[in-house]
Specification:
The chain has 27 helices and 29 strands. Mean pLDDT is 92; it is low at 1-7 and 517-521. It is 43% helix and 16% strand. The strands form 10 sheets. A 4-stranded antiparallel sheet has the order 6-5-14-16. Strands 10-11-9-12 form a 4-stranded mixed sheet, covered by helices on one side. Helix 25 (827-852) packs antiparallel against helix 27 (863-891). The relative contact order is 0.09. It starts with 21 loop residues before the first helix and ends with a helix. By secondary structure, the protein is an alpha/beta fold.
């Protein structure tokens, strides 16, 4: 006995889940890509190379929205280039984050009542390595969650043995050439961390303090004296001069004289310097060279003494006054009180709001402090970094950021590279028993009895070598030959000066080495990347900067859990314009999730109807709808390609989104339903066109939303993976403008009839008899079948009488659709609804007219605002005309 055929035969759509659930597939899809080796780069490949190095996040951290944006954009670029036939290296890694990591481990020790000194340097560093192995992998897991297509086999860490070797090599070369030196200069000092910190680790905040005006010299107004003001009155213990402008008539007679210091007994000279603004305050300023950047420079110009009045913990020290041993903030109060007792406080302003630098890591106010540190001479290096952009060797996107770049590199000060920490790259300088000083490279050993410098290097030193140290420099490796210089650096504009500048400085410097210049077409200085793409900051939905204090931060992994990785990625990429900030909120993520679902449902519908990529017939055999959607695909792809090439991610995503949603899903799929019901030749062609369009669309969208596109593309095409599929190519066929016009007219006709139905309160599924005229004159023969199907119109029977006529002006003529709505409309209810709409339209017209008649408003309002009001007025006029006509028709019934 033969079994009966199943009622619902299997289709490719059955290979898809019932609905799109990102959490059910993302982890397995990603691991499958990694296991297949899709992201591993082959340095021996014949394909052209394309490379990006991941800006290394801190090993202590976790991904925030800024990271998620960074990673999404780099992944978009990498995936697209891989599909375009490039050998792609996206190299991951993490930064050892000297201060942050040491602080984490020290806090753990403190919980047990221990300090790093209890263990000593070597044992403490072992503990940091233990922490790194146990807790430092958080970011790697998060990167997998959002789909980062990095080459995990090349994962690097800035304290790796190979990177340490690169650091020592560069340091020794620069030391031997005199580009690295040791000197006592002013630094940002953290009393809590007891180390110098970099400018990028100083965050300025407005705080309420006090402004104290104090009097140097005689308390008698008729005797020599000057009045100066300060927000840090305790620093007057380190004052070594008072400065005035050389042309200030009030003080000319005092220049060159001295005044007694109220506490130390020092004689304070009055000096003349053009830096002083005679119009500001009293025109006289106190000079504390060891505790203020501007004062330090003045101290150098005038050869002033530079006594340091605070120790490493921020306590007053070595002043020989009663204030020694006091914390700086306690001393601020006590010094002011003692000055007041002497009658020297002329005025106090409290509270006084002013900007104060704070340590990003410890939170306390930083202290400018004179300190013996290691420095890099940056003049020639910074010039090379500036010239690289001026000469076009490196291109900054957007170009509007170039002035900021030049302003920074052209005015750069020498760079403090030493930190008073234990965790980090230890400075490879050794001191001999007879006072000798020498630098030893990675393959050298210091003589017996020599002592190594205790400081470590600023984290930015090792991360500045990142583009080439991660590829094996100083050895001449296949990776350097294939992938260096890297293709693009993607980062936020907020760290343009710190990290990007250092990489370009080092890249120019080391490229004189043969290992960098080796390879076809490489000669002379090489920049570490050809393009620098600077994106903006991620802000909340109201445009405010995300911060812990505001409580408006968004965890990107929370969005992955709730909406899927594709939704996170699409939201960020869709908002990413070069150099511009982007605002995101949950509505944005939900919209992106809806887009993925829309794409899933559309593809599943297509599969259920037999759609699949297949060779297309001659264009003459295709319908207008088929030719239109293929032409639109080509146009949108060309625009997306151009936008991606210009790093205009937002423009590319916006174009693909509207093509997919508005044109493929909302229009072509609906038109295809009509064609599926036509004869088999038309239906077969439709299945092929729809299959090809979805195939190309999924590939175009894959770099941005990789998970849903992989799921759909594999079922649609039967291919191995869209990750390694070819990027779509343009057909080269000229656009059929006539077909496009007819489809646009068809859409307009359908839209107007649907609008009429909605106006009449007809249910969406309710069919009404209708007859059209003027089709031939408007060039719409053969198009009305779409209108009838999509606007729910039926063939009229004998005795058909039109209740209403809808006239629609099209590109070549007017089509009239006569519709019989008898028995379908509650005339009384319809009249009330129309009267309500008429009142609203009339009110809108009055509002618009009043604004356009207001000369004061028109004089101030931007043209775009005025144009918008004019448009609203025109719409109101048309609505009044339409509704009035409809009410007249009802009145005649």
């Amino acid at each position: 006995m033969t079994s009966a055929a199943p009622e619902n035969p299997q289709t490719p759509a059955d290979a898809l889940p019932k609905s799109w659930d990102p959490s059910a597939v993302e982890a397995d899809l990603y691991q499958g890509w990694v296991d297949a080796g899709y992201f591993q780069a082959d340095a021996t490949s014949d394909k052209p190379g394309y490379s990006i190095v991941l800006p290394p996040p801190n090993v202590t951290g976790s991904l925030h929205m800024g990271h998620a944006l960074d990673h999404t954009l780099m992944d978009v670029l990498s995936r697209r280039k891989r599909m375009q036939g490039y050998e792609v290296l996206w190299l991951p890694g993490m930064d050892h984050a000297g201060i942050a990591t040491q602080s984490v481990v020290e806090k753990q020790l403190a919980a047990d009542g221990k300090t790093k000194e209890d263990f000593g340097r070597e044992l403490f560093i072992d503990k940091v390595w233990d922490w790194k192995r146990e807790s430092g992998g958080t970011i790697g897991g998060q990167m997998r969650r959002i789909g980062d297509g990095v080459d995990w086999s090349r994962d690097r860490f800035t304290m790796d043995e190979g990177l340490s070797r690169a650091v020592q090599t560069v340091f020794k070369r620069m030391f031997d050439e005199g580009l690295i030196y040791r000197a006592e200069r002013l630094v940002n000092w953290s009393p809590v961390l007891q180390t110098a910190i970099s400018d990028i680790e100083v965050k300025f905040e407005d705080v309420e303090g006090e402004l104290v005006s104090l009097r140097y010299g005689s308390l008698d107004d008729n005797e020599p004296h000057v009045i100066v003001a300060t927000t840090r009155v305790e620093t007057m213990l380190g004052d070594t001069a008072v400065a005035v402008h050389p042309e200030d008539e009030r003080y000319k007679h005092l220049i060159g004289t001295t005044l007694d210091h109220p506490f130390t007994g020092r004689q304070i000279p009055i000096i003349a310097d053009d830096y002083v603004d005679p119009e500001f305050g009293t025109g006289a300023v106190k000079i504390t060279p060891a505790h203020d950047p501007n004062d330090f420079e003045m101290g150098l110009r005038h050869n002033l003494p530079m006594p340091t009045i605070m120790d490493k913990t921020g306590k007053i020290a070595d002043t020989g006054t009663e204030f020694d041993g006091m914390d700086r903030f306690e001393a601020r109060v006590k010094v002011r009180e003692a000055l007041a007792e002497q009658g020297r406080v002329v005025a106090e302003k409290r509270p006084y709001l002013h900007s104060v630098g704070h340590s990003e890591r410890s939170g306390e106010a930083i202290e400018p402090r004179l300190s013996l540190q290691w420095w890099v001479k940056v003049e020639t290096l910074a010039k090379a970094a500036g010239d690289a952009v001026r000469n076009g060797d490196t291109v900054i996107h957007p170009a509007s950021q170039e002035p900021r770049w030049f302003d920074w590199v052209d005015n750069m000060h020498d760079w403090c590279i030493s930190r008073q920490l234990w965790w980090g790259h230890r400075i490879p300088v050794w001191y001999g028993p007879e006072g000798e000083v020498a630098c030893f490279g990675p393959d050298e050993t210091a003589p017996e009895g020599w002592v190594q410098d205790p400081d470590v290097l600023d984290t930015w030193f090792s991360s500045g070598l990142w583009p080439f140290s991660t590829m094996g420099w100083p050895d001449n490796t296949p990776e350097l030959e294939k992938f260096y210089p890297t293709s693009v650096l993607v980062t936020g504009y907020d760290i343009l000066f710190f990290w990007v500048a250092r990489m370009m400085m080092f890249g120019t410097y080391v490229s004189e080495d043969e290992s960098i210049t080796a390879g076809p077409g490489k000669s002379g200085a090489q920049m570490p990347f050809k393009d620098v793409f600077l994106h903006g900051l991620v802000r909340d939905q109201y445009g405010k900067k995300m911060s812990k204090s505001r409580g408006n931060g968004i965890d990107p992994l929370d969005w992955v859990d709730r909406f899927g990785a594709d939704a996170l990625r699409f939201t960020l990429a869709r908002g990413a314009n070069p150099g511009s900030d982007l605002s995101v909120g949950e509505d944005s993520a939900q919209s992106s999730r809806n887009f993925a679902t829309k794409l899933f449902n559309a593809t599943k519908f297509a599969l259920m109807n037999g759609a699949a990529p297949a060779p297309l017939p001659a264009r003459s055999e295709l319908t207008d709808a088929d030719r239109w959607i293929l032409d639109r695909l080509g146009t949108v792809q060309a625009e997306a390609d151009a936008a991606f090439d210009r790093y205009e991610f937002s423009k590319a995503c916006e174009g693909l989104f509207h093509f997919a949603w508005d044109e493929v899903c909302d229009w072509y799929l609906e038109l295809a339903k009509v064609q599926f019901a036509a004869d088999e030749a038309v239906a077969a062609n439709t299945r092929a066109v729809l299959g090809n369009v979805l195939d190309a669309l999924l590939r175009l969208l894959h770099p941005v939303i990789p998970f849903v596109t992989e799921t759909l593309w594999k079922v649609l095409t039967g291919g191995e993976s869209v990750v390694v599929a070819d990027w779509p190519t343009l057909s080269g066929v000229a656009v059929d403008t006539q077909a496009a016009t007819r489809i646009e007219d068809t859409q307009k006709l359908i839209t107007e009839v649907r609008r009429f139905r909605n106006d009449q309160g007809l249910k969406p599924s309710q069919k009404v008899p209708a007859r059209a005229s003027g089709l031939s004159e408007a060039g719409m023969d053969g198009q009305f079948a779409y209108v009838a199907a999509l606007a729910k119109l039926t063939e009229p029977e004998e005795g058909f009488t039109a209740s209403i006529s809808v006239e629609v002006r099209l590109s070549q003529g007017t089509v009239t659709v006569d519709i019989d709505t008898s028995g379908t409309i509650d005339l009384g209810a319809e009249k009330k609804r129309l009267e309500k709409d008429l009142a609203a339209a009339q009110k809108e017209l009055v509002t618009a007219d009043n604004k356009l008649a207001n000369e004061a408003f028109l004089a101030k309002a931007p043209d775009a605002v005025v144009d918008k009001i004019k448009t609203r007025r025109q719409i109101a006029v048309e609505e009044i005309e339409r509704i009035t006509g409809r009410l007249k028709e009802l009145a005649d019934k």
